[in-house]
Specification:
By secondary structure, this protein is of the alpha/beta class. It has one domain: Uracil-DNA glycosylase-like domain (Uracil-DNA Glycosylase, subunit E, 3-Layer(aba) Sandwich). Helix content is 33%, strand content 18%. A hairpin with a 2-residue loop joins strand 6 (159-165) and strand 7 (168-173). Helix 2 (64-71) packs across helix 6 and helix 4 crosses helix 5 (139-148).
Length: 201
């Protein structure tokens, strides 16, 4: 597996090559990770729109950026862009990765073998890098992560969880995807606001 763990230089898009559990190569978004970050943002897996654009949460209909800006979590109004990804990483200590790195059109296209391959790698990142908080976007992302590790989670509450990965606390917020119509912008923003309070923003 290839991952990005340093501040990127001047570039127009994020891109790297990973190897999956079958030894096949594919393009995806690199991890933006470093030791002792405030947060690591963990999506389910990249969508093709983000791969094409070359940054996280690139779908213009995704509510991540506007809810982030309204919540006080970043302290700044960021528009969806590679530059915004880099500034969150460099200035605010917010890293980015996914439960599964293989891009798909939707969550239904992921296989059990994807989770079983990628979840242990994510756990190792969290234990090695020790961020203050691991921030899962959606219960599906967190539940499938835990299930793949053989630690079945049936009842998952929103917000701070009752378990840790090493010294890292775990927080689950509603998925900002436009497909998640059950939650309004206000719901997502409030979840981000509570997260901001936990890291002292």
């Amino acid at each position: 597996m290839t991952s990005q763990s340093q501040t990127p230089g001047i570039m127009t898009r994020l891109s790297t090559t990973f190897t999956d559990q079958h030894g096949e190569l594919f393009e995806s978004l690199p991890d933006l990770l470093a030791p002792h970050l405030n947060l690591i943002s963990i999506g389910l897996n990249p969508g093709f729109r983000s791969i094409e654009a070359g940054f996280y949460f690139a779908n213009p209909r995704n509510r991540f950026w506007r809810c982030l800006s309204s919540s006080g979590l970043s302290g700044h109004l960021y528009q969806p862009s590679l530059d915004a990804n880099i500034k969150l990483y460099e200035r605010h200590g917010i890293g980015f990765t996914d439960v599964v790195k293989r891009p798909t059109a939707g969550a239904a296209d992921l296989r059990v073998s994807d989770y079983r391959y990628w979840a242990p790698l994510l756990r190792q990142h969290l234990k090695n890098l020790q961020p203050k908080l691991a921030w899962f976007h959606g219960k599906v992302a967190f539940k499938n992560y835990m299930n793949a590790l053989g630690e079945t989670k049936q009842d998952i509450d929103w917000g701070l969880q009752d378990l840790m990965e090493g010294q890292t606390r775990i927080y689950v917020s509603p998925n900002p995807s436009p497909a998640n119509a059950a939650f309004s912008d206000a719901d997502i923003t409030e979840s981000y606001r509570r997260l901001a309070e936990m890291i002292g923003n």
